[in-house]
Amino acid sequence: MAADRVTRRATPRLWSRFDAVFFDVAMAVVRGYGYVVHGLRVTGREHLVSERGGVVSIANHVHYLDGPWVAGQFRGRRAAVVSQPSNFHLPVAGLLVSHLLAVPLPRGPGELSAFEARLRRTVDAGQGVHFFPEGVLAMYDTTLRPFQRGAFVYACRLDVPVVPMVFTYGRRPWWRPRPPIHLTILPAEHPRGAAPADIAELLTRCRSAMEAVVAGAPDDVARR
C-alpha cells in the first residue's frame, strides 16, 4: 500500500489541476471569440474525434490565436501546443502561454530527450501535441511555406497519427475588417515506419493534403 502511494507520487502529472481548468475555460472563451469576432468556421472535426488515442496535429501558422483555436477543437481532451521558448517570456502573453499547456521547443541537443519524453507522456495519455511545421507566424498568409521535419519525426518515433489542419480565409464582407477564417481538419495520416524515408513520406502526404485545401480557397485571400 505504501509502495503504491510512493509510485503515484513519483509519477509526474502532465499538467497541474489549475492549468487543466484554466485551459478548458480559456479554450471555451477563445472559441467563442473566434466564432463571433473572426467568423471562425470549423469543418472536419469528426476526423479528430475518430482518433481515440494520442495524436500529433499540424497547421499552417497564420494568426496569433491559431494555436488556441486548434487546441480548442480537442474537446473532451487537451492538446499541448509546441511553442518557441521566447513566447514564455513575453509580458502578460508569456504568463498565458505558460498556463495553456504549451511545450517549449528544445533549445539544444541537451534538451531533446526531455522534450521527447514529455511528448511521449502526453500522447500515451491519449492527448494531443500540436506543431506549426512552418515554424514562423505570417499573418493572413495561407500560402504553405516550407515545413520543418520535427512534427513528422516525433509522430513516427512515437507511432501516432498526424492530423493535418488548414487555415484559409473567405471573402471579406463589407462589414468585417478582416476576412472570415475557416479551419479545415483533415483525415489522419498514419506513419509507416520511423526511418528517414518514412518521415519524408509522411511529411509529403500531409503537405499534399493541405495544399489541396489551400488550392480550393478563394484566390483573392489565399495567396497574399
Automatic annotation (TrEMBL):
UniProt cross-references to InterPro entries, sorted A to Z: Plipid/glycerol_acylTrfase (IPR002123)
Keyword Transferase: yes
Keyword check for Hydrolase: no
GO biological process, one term: phosphatidic acid biosynthetic process
Domain Phospholipid/glycerol acyltransferase: 55-170
Gene Ontology terms for molecular function: 1-acylglycerol-3-phosphate O-acyltransferase activity
Protein keywords: Acyltransferase, Transferase
Protein name per Swiss-Prot or TrEMBL: Phospholipid/glycerol acyltransferase domain-containing protein
Species this protein is from: Cellulosimicrobium cellulans F16
